[in-house]
Structure formats: C-alpha cells, structure tokens
Amino acid sequence: MPTVTTPHWPTVLLSHEFPDATSHVDWMIASEPLGREPLVTFRLESRLDEIDAEQGLLARRISDHRAEYLTYEGPVSGDRGTVRRLARGTVVSWERSGDRWLMEIDWPWPNGGLRRQNLCLTRRKAGSDAWLIELWELR
C-alpha cells in the first residue's frame, strides 16, 4: 500500500567537498513536515535540480542525516570537508511504494518564483542502496 506524505516537506541539496578536493552532492529530504527528524539522504554525482528529461541520475541511499543539515553550511566533523547549500526546495507530494517513489518538488528559480520537478525514483535491485532518479510526467 503506497504511503503519501503530507505536503510541504523541506529538502536540500548540499555540495560536500572533501579535503582532497573531490566532491559529490548530498540530497536530503525531511522525514516529517517540520524537518526535525533524521533526513532521508542520497549521494549524487551531480545536481538533482538540473537534470532534464533525457537523462537519469544514479543515486546511492546513505544513512539518514541529522535534521540540522537542512540549514547547516560549513565544516563537517572528523575532518570530512565542508558542505555548502546548492538549493533548498519543498516536497509537495511523495508517494512511496516499496522500490518506487514518485515525488513532486518545488525548487526556487534564482530570479524568483518556483519550478516544479516531478521525479520517479526506482531502486535498481531489491535490497540495494542504488537508485535511479528520472523525470516523469503527470497524467
């Protein structure tokens, strides 16, 4: 049975830069509307909010992160580099059905206003932490 979340849950994209100059993007999603519980977290190779209809994005589900990362920028403990916010959005709807999630996210435009992104996340293999993120069309 699918689970549909209450609308308007915060989400954030962070650039995580390591001391050796390598980096990745962390995508964090609040697990409840106030953003106080641990954040569902994925590691991405590039920005989620910039993918287009012709491309998918591979993601790796990693351990949930502290809610503070919704607003935090700066050094990461244990000499693990720094994080910098790339974008903060709002999850408008989130349908979770096992290994397939459908999401609608509003991201702010740099010059004002919002841009809606419709995403389909599919786990690559049962029990795996690898997911494929693609854009999907509302019907």
Entry keywords:
globular; 139 residues; single chain
Structure in words:
With 139 residues, the protein is an all-beta fold. The chain has one domain (3-135). Helix content is 0%, strand content 55%. It contains no helices and ten strands. The chain has an eight-stranded antiparallel beta barrel. A hairpin with a 5-residue loop joins β8 and β9. It is globular and about 40 Å long. It starts with a strand and ends with a strand.
Largest sheet, described in full?
A: 8 strands, antiparallel, barrel
Terminal CA distance? 20 Å
What's the number of helices?
0
Order of helices and strands: EEEEEEEEEE
In which order are the strands of the major sheet placed? 2-3-4-5-10-9-8-7
Q: Overall 3D geometry? A: globular
Question: Low-confidence spans: pLDDT under 50, at least 5 residues?
Answer: none
Q: Give average pLDDT, whole number.
A: 91
- Beta percentage is over 45%
Q: Rg to the nearest angstrom?
A: 15 Å
Secondary structure class reads: mainly beta
Short description, anyone?
The protein is mostly beta strands and 139 residues long.
Write the layout of secondary structure elements.
Blueprint: E1 3-4, E2 9-17, E3 23-29, E4 39-44, E5 57-65, E6 74-75, E7 82-97, E8 100-108, E9 114-123, E10 130-135
Antiparallel strand pairs: 1-7, 2-3, 2-7, 3-4, 4-5, 5-10, 6-7, 7-8, 8-9, 9-10
